[in-house]
Design a protein that fits this description.
The protein is an alpha+beta fold and 431 residues long. Helix content is 51%, strand content 8%. The strands form three sheets. A five-stranded mixed β-sheet has the order 1-2-8-5-3, sandwiched between helices. A three-stranded antiparallel β-sheet has the order 4-10-9. It has a two-stranded antiparallel ribbon with strand order 6-7. The structure holds protoporphyrin IX containing FE.
């Protein structure tokens, strides 16, 4: 594809769609952590949805059915739920993003259906493919296509000039899309519009849900011909995801063009924005601590520690949702069959019983499992890729932007919102 697809708005819209997602999930506070701390102590399994309290749409009741919802704040309870998908199912997620993404929405599938689709996809993420993507695609794309063009001005907005774009380019390359910036950014804008569909305000929701359905359809209509063209050309390069899925079909996995299109379409909202925000949050946490940033610049063995700790401290997916398949007790509270649970990952990740001084950012703390990529059966399939992207991006910034610091001409960046937290801008200067 060499031109912007028909009916496509200019690529600059991606930034607007990104801002719209931030707006939807911003809620009534920019610092929910003191309340989480209090809830862990006083009411760790709360009846009600804390996201409703914050005015943020919740996957626990996206369709506003008035379903009974509980919120869990402690690590132990969140982990116990994620480790028991038989008792705590994910099917309710179909009411949210699943409504747009249909039956390929992996996070919303349970049991055998989930296992079969996950196994198909997992086969693409072999250590060999991951290593190959990291060395031959992620690193060069990040450095050559995104960092180098920013260097001459000695200043940039690390969110809007960099972090918003490189994960989109990486994931589309990994999938095997033609490298056409306008189309890729439009597809990414549509993927963001799907995420911005659910809203608390019913008037806004009517409009945004319509836009989300349209975006899902537009994505489908533009991805499917790409899949069909690849099939017609014999599948092509198997080391990309479309090629891998076409090959899996040839080996008997029963994946027609419709199914492959739906799988690819499901991955787009999952893969890009999460990385954008995770990287941006890490940069704010490090720029707030210039001595630590200098230390990491000198000793790159600290890069993985900085990544892990920033993911713990500021998880982008700050809440997950599950539904009780039977009457069950959590932390001494009875949860009736059918009730939903909002799992406060952002709280669990700072639970002092597991992470000493959990509200402190400390890259030297002992590594323990965190909930930022979920846990158990639905653990993020792109965990390693997300981390590889963060690693490549942090090293690229450290290698090419000496003396990186906040731009004094702008207000200091802040991590905002309740869910999908992140800075809106990140203006920096360098020597
Ligand atoms: C730092 C970046 C990322 C973060 C923070 C993140 C976070 C998450 C979380 C929290 C879940 C669990 C959802 C649940 O249990 O309900 C998840 C699932 C998933 N993620 Fe990611 N993700 C990231 C990057 C990626 C990338 C790059 C890809 C694709 C290459 C990806 C693909 C998926 C898929 C397919 C699932 C569904 C797994 C399943 O249900 O079995 N993610 N992610």
């Amino acid at each position: 594809m060499n031109s912007t697809p028909e009916g496509v708005a200019p690529a600059a819209d991606m930034a607007n769609d990104f801002a719209a997602v931030s707006d939807v999930f911003s809620g009534t506070t920019n610092d929910p952590y003191p309340l989480y701390r209090e809830m862990r102590e006083k009411n760790p399994v709360m009846e009600g949805d804390i996201l409703a309290f914050f005015g943020v749409p919740s996957q626990a009741d996206y369709a506003n059915k008035g379903r009974q919802v509980f919120t869990t704040f402690r690590y132990e309870d969140c982990m116990a739920i994620l480790k028991d998908p038989g008792t705590f199912s994910s099917g309710l997620l179909m009411e949210g993003l699943g409504a747009f993404l249909e039956d390929a929405m992996l996070t919303a599938l349970d049991g055998e259906k989930h296992r079969v689709l996950r196994n198909v996809l997992q086969g693409a993420f072999t250590p060999r493919n991951l290593k190959n993507w990291h060395e031959n695609m992620i690193r060069p794309v990040v450095v050559d296509e995104f960092i180098k063009p920013l260097l001459s001005q000695k200043k940039c907005d690390l969110v809007n000039d960099f972090a918003l774009h490189f994960p989109v380019r990486v994931i589309y390359e990994m999938m095997g899309f033609p490298n056409d910036k306008a189309s890729i950014e439009q597809f990414a804008g549509w993927a963001l519009r799907i995420l911005a569909g659910p809203q608390k305000d019913p008037v806004k929701a009517e409009q945004s849900m319509r836009a989300a359905f349209q975006a899902a359809q537009d994505l489908y209509d533009h991805v499917r011909p790409i899949v069909a063209a690849r099939r017609a050309a014999g599948g092509g390069n198997q080391s990309d995801l479309i090629g891998y899925l076409l090959n899996a079909d040839a080996q008997g996995a029963d994946l027609d063009d419709h199914k492959i299109t739906n799988i690819i379409r499901m991955l787009l909202p999952a893969a890009a924005e999460t990385t954008t925000r995770s990287f941006s949050n890490m940069m704010v946490l490090l720029l707030d601590r210039p001595e630590l940033l200098a230390q990491i610049r000198e000793d790159r063995s600290l890069v993985p520690k900085a990544i892990n700790e920033s993911l713990r401290y500021e998880p982008v997916s700050a809440f997950l949702a599950r539904q009780a398949e039977k009457d069950v007790e959590i932390g001494g509270v009875q949860i009736p069959k059918g009730a939903a649970i909002s799992l406060a990952n952002g709280s669990a990740n700072r639970d002092e019983t597991v992470f000493a001084n959990g509200d402190e950012f400390d890259i030297f703390r002992p590594v323990k499992p965190i909930l930022s990529f979920g846990f158990g059966a639905h653990t993020c399939l792109g965990l390693t890729i997300g981390k590889m992207e963060m690693e490549s991006a942090l090293n690229a910034v450290l290698d090419h932007m000496p003396n990186l610091r906040y731009d004094p001409d702008y207000p200091k960046a802040e991590i905002l919102g309740v869910m999908m937290r992140g800075p809106r801008n990140l203006h920096v200067v360098f020597d």
